[in-house]
Amino acid sequence: MHEIKRTLPIVACGILLAAGTLFGASSAYGQTDTKSPQTAHTNHSAGHAAHARVPGFVAPTTTAAPAPAANAAALQAGAQTPAELINLLGQRIVAKDVDGIIALQEREAAIIDWDGSVIRGHAAIRAFYVEWFESDPILQVNPLQIVEAGGTRVGNKVIGRSASVMGTYTLEQDGPDGTRVSFSGNFCDIVRQQVNGTWLYIQDNPYPPHS
């Protein structure tokens, strides 16, 4: 599987849940089973992990079966703010709703892998999430800052903005030998407002440079 060495999301992503607030306590996405005594921990500089990111929720006390994929109307609903986009991604990660996750990405969106390679486009992102979910991930995301910038002013409104979403995360998942492993690190995601006013992911980076 992909060796994404994180210290998710999330996005952020992308990860699962009961509704919560964006800047409250760390959000948990994924299973809710207690950690195995064999759980190992590492930081951003070592170990193997898989994609994760995205905030806004606290995991339920029981592990639910994956929810059915969102219907067409739900997929078209869209996020009206960057914070809402993060929350939607978290919900769909909890449900392991790959179609719903893809609906929150621009067609040429990208995920940055641990080695700096780029997972680009819907087909590659879909394959990434399908494989990652096999590791039973639990992602906790702490979004610290959302900054909107750019865009075009039309009258008294600015449209077409981009936003950076930055924070920290921890990720627990099955390692290659089946034992639970955990990681922690920083993330920096980029989202963009579409012509219809909704927001989509354009880049999910769980490995930004940091000291």
Automatic annotation (TrEMBL):
<keyword id="KW-0413">Isomerase</keyword>
<dbReference type="InterPro" id="IPR032710">
    <property type="entry name" value="NTF2-like_dom_sf"/>
</dbReference>
<dbReference type="GO" id="GO:0016853">
    <property type="term" value="F:isomerase activity"/>
</dbReference>
<feature type="signal peptide">
    <location>
        <begin position="1"/>
        <end position="24"/>
    </location>
</feature>
<protein>
    <submittedName>
        <fullName>Ketosteroid isomerase homolog</fullName>
    </submittedName>
</protein>
<keyword id="KW-0732">Signal</keyword>
